[in-house]
Amino acid sequence: xxxxxxxxxxxxxxKTNEGKEVSLADYRGxxxxxxxxxxxxxxxxxxxxxxxxxxHESFKDxxxxxLGVSPDPVARHEKFIDKHDLPFELLADxxxxxxxxxxxxxxxxxxxxxxMGIERSTFVIDPDGKVMKEWRKVKVKGHVEEAxxxxxxxxx
Length: 156
Description:
Layout: E1 14-16, E2 21-22, E3 31-36, H1 43-54, H2 56-61, E4 64-70, H3 74-84, E5 89-92, H4 97-101, E6 105-110, E7 113-118, E8 121-125, E9 131-135, H5 143-155
Parallel strand pairs: 3-4, 4-5
Antiparallel strand pairs: 1-2, 1-5, 3-8, 6-7, 8-9
């Protein structure tokens, strides 16, 4: 079952880049910008992560935490964070449980080849743990600013 707008987010446990086990419930009381991306160190994912990094303080000022999610392991997340000086946590969803709960683990096609992977998506979760907004099939350019603007309007 896929989480939809207005619904409570699932209590799936995943590891942070520091190896600590967390669930989305651990972030109650804050807005959560949960963004799913395919793979650390790839061009689009790096651009998106750096855009979130560059706007991190603006999200923080709105009582929001940014959480990036991919199936990459903890060690790869650590390298990605170190290389690009990312000030937020990355979640290692190696079993794809969180991705499946949000309906972003999809059949993808590239150059005629089919494979399963993450559909780049972002979700804004309210302080009570309910989905407020979702963007699916995200195009990286301008997306972080759009998410920030949505949050600014919502928090007023």
